[in-house]
């Protein structure tokens, strides 16, 4: 059975059956280079920041996934979100001479952009194998091995920064957003997406119930995610204005829990929290699969997995941007708006 992907938005539901993709040609103009000058080692963290994720392990997971014989088999989710981000970039009525993709993976986003919109594209990731196996794109690109929290670029460099499904593995998300704001030019825009708090809640609940019943307690097996209520605040604190934050849900149906976990590993999305449990007993895993099927099974026998996606857009301040009116400058009070509307309707009827 091939995973089925369903995108759930307010009032609209799309259904799409994912078919195996043909192998893609590597982009010959992509050369992986490491910018070492002034860049802290991969996995470094800022002082005073909670060290939730093992960044070294995450790098190994992504490198392993990028080296698999058929990495395109697991690209369906990243390509879907990449296309959604590209649509948001096209909605902005301008072109971007210089753009940056933070946490690009194998370049899932770049393939949906064109050279008329983006002149030159810098792609950064912590996994060198992902950069070496980048997907083909018509845009001239430069690959840079770099950590999301320590971007090796000067201030006011890029017209556009994008990021697709990478920032949820960052230990210091405020710093990462500040870094993105720093490298943007004034009036530059950041368009990104990351996994949200309800992602894989079916898998989380099933594992917790099975582990509690079989082992007398449970440990975290799904990494923690940022709440959408915090995301706008973090973007504002980083210096962005004219913010847009919205939520999508993507549901993918799998034959069973083990197929879901295989795909997560193939995506490089296995848990890398420091407090993760290294090993689950076989009977606990079988019990979790049974719980998953009993609680969430679809009519066709498949089981759903929900991915919550936070989409965000933020702009770096520039004098040309529209500003809110000064406090107290209004000429009409809210109490008079109803009377004003009636007056306008009366004039139209005359």
Automatic annotation (TrEMBL):
Gene Ontology MF term list: oxidoreductase activity; S-adenosylmethionine-dependent methyltransferase activity
* The entry's keywords: Methyltransferase, Mitochondrion, Oxidoreductase, Transferase, Transit peptide, Ubiquinone
**GO terms for biological process?**
methylation; mitochondrial respiratory chain complex I assembly
This protein's major location comes to mitochondrion
Classification via Pfam families: Methyltransf_11 (PF08241)
Specify the Methyltransferase type domain's residue ranges: 100-191
* GO cellular component entries: matrix side of mitochondrial inner membrane
Annotated compartments: Mitochondrion
Asked if Transit peptide is a keyword of the record, the answer is yes
Which family, according to UniProt?
A: Belongs to the methyltransferase superfamily.
The entry's protein name is Arginine-hydroxylase NDUFAF5, mitochondrial
Lineage, uppermost ranks = Eukaryota, Metazoa, Chordata, Craniata, Vertebrata
Gene symbol here is NDUFAF5
């Amino acid at each position: 059975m091939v995973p089925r992907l369903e995108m759930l938005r307010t009032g609209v539901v799309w259904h799409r059956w994912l078919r195996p993709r043909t192998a893609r040609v590597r982009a010959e103009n992509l050369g992986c280079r490491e910018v070492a000058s002034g860049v802290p080692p991969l996995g470094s963290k800022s002082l005073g920041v909670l060290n939730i994720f093992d960044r070294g392990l995450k790098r190994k997971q992504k490198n392993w996934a990028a080296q698999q014989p058929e990495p395109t088999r697991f690209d369906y989710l990243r390509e879907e979100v990449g296309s959604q981000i590209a649509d948001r970039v096209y909605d902005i009525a301008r072109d971007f001479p210089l753009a940056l993709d933070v946490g690009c993976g194998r370049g899932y986003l770049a393939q949906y952009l064109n050279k008329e919109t983006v002149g030159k594209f810098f792609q950064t990731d912590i996994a060198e194998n992902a950069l070496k196996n980048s997907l083909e794109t018509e845009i001239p690109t430069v690959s840079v091995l770099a950590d999301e929290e320590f971007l090796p670029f000067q201030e006011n460099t890029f017209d556009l920064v994008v990021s697709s499904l990478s920032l949820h593995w960052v230990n210091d998300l405020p710093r990462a957003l500040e870094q993105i704001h720093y490298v943007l030019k004034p009036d530059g825009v950041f368009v990104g997406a990351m996994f949200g708090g309800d992602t894989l809640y079916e898998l989380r609940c099933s594992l917790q119930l099975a582990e509690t019943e079989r082992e007398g307690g449970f440990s975290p097996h799904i990494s923690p995610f940022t709440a959408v209520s915090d995301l706008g605040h973090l973007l504002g604190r980083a210096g962005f204005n004219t913010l847009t934050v919205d939520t999508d849900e993507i549901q993918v149906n799998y034959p069973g829990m083990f197929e879901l976990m295989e795909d997560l590993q193939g995506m490089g999305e296995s848990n890398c929290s420091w407090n993760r449990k290294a090993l689950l007993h076989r009977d606990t895993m079988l019990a979790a699969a049974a719980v998953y099927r009993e609680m969430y099974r679809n009519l066709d026998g498949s089981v759903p997995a929900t991915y919550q996606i936070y989409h965000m857009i933020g702009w770096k301040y520039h004098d040309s941007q529209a500003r809110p009116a000064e406090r107290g400058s209004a000429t009409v009070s809210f109490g008079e708006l109803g009377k004003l509307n009636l007056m306008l309707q009366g004039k139209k009827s005359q």
